Amino acid sequence: METNKKGIRKILAIRGMGQVLTVTVGLIILCIVFGVLNPTFFSNKNLGNLLRQIAPILLIGIGQSYVLITGNIDLSIGSVLGMSCMISATLMTKGISPIAAILITFVACMAVGFLNGHLVSTCSLPPFIATLGTMTIGRGIAQIVNGNYNTDSIGAAGKKFREFFYYGKTFGIYNTILIAIIVWIVFNFILSRTRTGRHIYAIGSNVDAAKLSGVSVVGTTVKVYLVSAFCSFLVGIITCATAGMGTMDSGTSYEMYAVAASVIGGVSTLGGQGILLGTVVGAAIWGVLQNGLQFAGAPVAIRNIVIGVIVVVSVLLDVIVRTGSFKRKKKA
Amino acid sequence: MKQELLRIEHVSLNKSKIDYLRNLSMWIEKAEILGLISLNYHGLEELIDLIINNAPIQQGKVYYDGNSVNSYLGKVKKENKVCIIDRQSRLAPDLTVADNIFVLRKGFKKYFINSSILEKEVARTLTESQIEIEPNILAGLLTEGQRYQVELIKAVSFGAKLVIVQNVGELLSFNDLSKFHELMKCFAKQGVSFLYVSNDYREVFDISDRALLYKNGQIKKVLYKDEMHERTVLPYLQPIKDLRARENMERRSVLQVKDLYYDAANKVSFLIHQGECITILDKEKVLIHHSIMELMTLGIQKGNIFFNGDKFVEEVLLIPENPISSTLFLDQSYLYNLLFLIDKKIDRSVIPTKVIESVKKEWGKKIGRVMDCSSIRDLSIREKYQLIYYKAILYRPKLVIVMQPFAVADFNLREEIIKLVAELKQSNIAVLLLSSYAIDIKSVSDQYIVLGEESEIQ
């Protein structure tokens, strides 16, 4: 009994775990409500689809969480995703092998992440403005890469590519879901256990203290934007595999979904707080709401409104909790 | 006969069941400079809030300029025409001095502003006050001394009859402080009253007509001009133990400075050993303003610095002025903060669980339950200072440089800092203190150097 209590205390002592548990209760309630409204919600087929819906949101949520924890934001996520989708699809339709196409796309997306990182840290541009600029640039590239047209089907050459990123299963689990899980494990380890992770929290928590402690603010900021760009690149590839073609508007509004997943999961927009387990729950809430409301017959507009309200309330709660703590009595 | 401007009668103030002010009575006369020596900070913020904003009180009455403004029955007036000058700048950095003095104040009603007339008006005011500042210079470009002067002029232009000046000596150099005191005396002659708050009694004695000894929300003693001596204050202070290192211990040298010239610092030479503490008393804040690190790496004009036989770059830890805001991560856990520099020390990206557990075991008894807290924001100031120094001990650098160790510290905290510096020394770490105050440094320093035209070692 005493060991159990100790274990619970240890879990609760993990930074941000309290928030994650609270949101998890919300997720469970949502699942029960949608399950009662429509029993097919819990069917195997729907659960598989639901997880496949959640995976891309989780991936971009991981990238956005990294950026948010440093106290910045990345608005170019959707455009980089669009770029990734369009560049890879265009190259494959031109007969370039999927591996080469993926590599070229990777370099292009990472270049945007690198640019974002330097604009924010080296040039000290406000992250909102810097990434707003690269968002427009990214979308422009996505449009120009195939002459302002969506691509044709990536065809037979892309069959294996689609199989790997969308249709395929490993150990009975869709590859898309597995990719999300692996990426989550890697980035969660980096954030929670490595020096880089500590530096990310340090910058978001107190940038002056971080500088004085010898943390490279420029280097770490560039790293988080690279992570964000990498996640967008990955989702762009998955989107391309899902559709079997490149569409210029793919990834539109995904920056909003990424912020939603992070913030609902307890990542603070003020920086320094949040864990990637929360992003999983945040992405799951987003997915369950989309899926459940669809089952309940709610129009897209209503779904957007509900998610928007939840995001605003989450941020508001975070701000109240964080700023409220300043007003607490000072101990002499 | 002098008239009273402010009278606080038997005021008690408590919030959330904590007594901040207890049966406090005091008065300030018109054109008087009243010193307030804060032996600790408990309730001081509330007292200032009471004077400016008539904060709700549970007992007593407050009169300002002949009128009852606040009582236990409820406040009569929302706020008094009182201004405060402290660490926090109240000037808009991107506006000119003229705009800050005349435009950015309550009661300024003009919609169209003629800049040239405004600048002439400000120039006249500045000349009258014998201050050499261009009215069209941006406030953000002012030196700290000029900033305080402009804030004072702004307060007087606003029509404040009482100005609260809090802990200015911590930021100003000896010269700037003297200039600021002259300006205060000039305005006091014109009828402005001052409440001069500081924890340095010598500074208060220099400027005040009368002084109060304040501790725990109470006035412990009223000191008139003829009573302003160290011996009247000492009974109220806890004696600080002499924590200097014992002599005749064999220690390796860590840092040697030879014939260093830097601005006003002339021919500074010293040698610091392991476990030794040297204080550089920098009244003009030459070194403090130019960051010791910059000085040591770039700004040497003449002289030699040897760091353990090598260049002075590594194995040095800096504890800056205001270390809580500049070295701690308040929303992170105690352990996160304590271990922050360890990865650098052990040169591992992932801190092994073994190391974490051993730190927990070694430090757990000393630190206690606080070690488990997930956010250090709500820790007391004393605990936060302990964390800063424990982190340094754990990191074990060869040299720790502490800038203005006693800035913003009340007497109790000073005692704690002295203990913590002694702990650094016991861990065989060399300590270099840079302070503009002579107060208390003798308790911990093995030797101190007074910077000036001819720097001397004592």
The fraction of residues assigned to DSSP E strands of chain A is under 5%
How many DSSP E strands of chain A? 2
State the domain count of chain B.
2
Name the CATH superfamily assignment of the largest domain in chain B.
P-loop containing nucleotide triphosphate hydrolases
Can you tell me the residue ranges of chain B where pLDDT is under 50 for at least 5 consecutive residues?
none
Count of runs of 4 or more consecutive helical residues of chain A: 14
Spans of at least 5 consecutive residues with low confidence of chain A? 325-332
Main β-sheet, spatial strand arrangement of chain B: 7-8-9-3-10-11
Which sequence of SSEs, written as H and E, runs from N to C of chain A?
HHHHHHHEEHHHHHHH
Oligomer: heterodimer
Radius of gyration of chain A: 20 Å
Largest interface: A-B, 26 and 34 residues
Helix content of chain A: over 70%
Q: What profile does the largest beta sheet of chain A have?
A: 2 strands, antiparallel
At the third CATH level, what is the topology name of the largest domain in chain B? Rossmann fold
Strand order of the largest sheet of chain A: 1-2
The fraction of residues in strands of chain B falls at 25-35%
Helix/strand-derived category of chain A reads: mainly alpha
User: What Rg of chain B is obtained from the alpha carbons, in whole angstroms?
Assistant: 24 Å
Summarize the structure in words.
The complex is a heterodimer of chains A (332) and B (458). Chain A is mostly helical. Chain A has a domain of 227 residues. Helices cover 75% and strands 1% of the residues of chain A. Chain A has 14 helices and 2 strands. A two-stranded antiparallel ribbon of chain A has the order 1-2. In chain A, strand 1 and strand 2 form a beta hairpin. The C terminus of chain A is likely disordered. Chain B folds into 2 domains: 183 residues, 3-Layer(aba) Sandwich (Rossmann fold); 205 residues, Rossmann fold, CATH 3.40.50. In chain B, the strands form 4 sheets. A 6-stranded mixed sheet of chain B has the order 7-8-9-3-10-11, sandwiched between helices. Chain B has a 6-stranded mixed sheet with strand order 16-17-18-14-19-20, covered by helices on one side. Chain B has a 5-stranded antiparallel sheet with strand order 2-1-4-5-6, covered by helices on one side. Chain B contains 15 helices and 20 strands. Chain B is 31% helix and 27% strand. Chain B is of the alpha/beta class and 458 residues long. The mean pLDDT of chain B is 81. The interface between A and B is medium-sized, with 26 and 34 residues.
